[in-house]
Amino acid sequence: GYMEIGFVKEDNVAAFIGAGCNIVVGEHDQNTHFLVGEEKFRGGKRYQAANTSMKHLAFLRDPRTRQIIGEPEYGKNNLKIQERFIPIEKKKRFHLPHKTSMLIALSRDRFFQEGHFV
């Protein structure tokens, strides 16, 4: 598996945030990347726990972070799982060289008020 937390303005996804997505990126806003390669470790509850924990860590590691931006692959189950357990906002569908993604945003306030912690 692979997990990464970084700042949006230092990531390639920043080039895709612009007109038509209604996102203003702050200096301390972060993004997360999460990949599980082993089939036996995939699944709703495992994904929910790991992804929610990673978002929680991102907000805790820098209290100036107002939102977390993500670009999960469009049409995959992980986006559906995130919608069930994390109050994300879908912003726009866009194409990267290796996948079609959905740009999502998770605000700090909504995460701590509406997030389902396991």
TrEMBL record:
Source organism, top-level taxon: Eukaryota
Identify the InterPro entries for this entry: Acyl_CoA_acyltransferase
Please name the Pfam families in this protein's record.
Acetyltransf_8
Gene3D superfamilies according to UniProt: 3.40.630.30
Molecular function as annotated in GO: N-acyltransferase activity
**Similarity remark:** Belongs to the lysine N-acyltransferase MbtK family.
Protein name listed in UniProt: Uncharacterized protein
Give the organism's phylogenetic lineage: Eukaryota, Fungi, Dikarya, Ascomycota, Pezizomycotina
